[in-house]
Amino acid sequence: SISCLKASEAGVDVIDCALAPLALRSAQPAVEPILAALHGTERDPGLELDQIFELGQYMEEMMQKYKDFLNTTRVAVIDTNVLKHQIPGGMITNLVAQLKEAKALDRLPEVYEEIPRTRKDMGYPPLVTPTSQIVGVQAVLNVLFGRYKVITQQVKDYFYGLYGRPPAPVNPEVQKLALKGYPRGEEPIDCRAADVLEPEMEKAREATKGIAKDRGDVLIYALYPQVGLDFLKKKYGVEG
Description:
Blueprint: H1 2-9, H2 31-38, H3 49-62, H4 82-85, H5 89-101, H6 108-121, H7 131-145, H8 153-160, H9 172-178, H10 201-207, H11 215-223, H12 225-236
Helix pairs in contact: 5-7, 6-7, 10-11, 11-12
């Protein structure tokens, strides 16, 4: 919050904040105290604080259903460890959910330490969707079951090259382990991933026949076969 306030005083026109129920921890600072601090100054953005409070109360009620995703291993509402592990907030939310499901939330600090190692093994993929989740899930498995005792299908696909060329060299031993028995081949590709993929649109059209209304619906299924199909059935009220 202080950084945003000082940036505003220095002349920055836009700062990134969040409503209080969504703020802090690994997210942005809360907008309410910043607005209060700037009220009546030359940098006052003119937003009605009472209306912001109403929006915050609405989100407070909405967020009750997501309480299980909060990291309850910490009391502090500011996650200073972000300065060290640099894991984005959305990724942390998924890590917490996975560990809670495994009844191993107390091992979150170990996962924080494992993620940089896993990421290094994979050639430093960017921590953005989807590779952030691929790295995160594998790091959780490495902590719970031992390093690379269990390897996800997505990690195998990554080492094969289906997510493109890694930004940096990967760990060859881990890559060899991941590709052992891989159905497409045990040697990674050195071409475009699309060159080794079979056409999928016709299969997707057939699978969504009688459900999909347009190409967008077909693409939803093509990208997320199981979840996408369930979504389309609910969207159009299709039984079964």
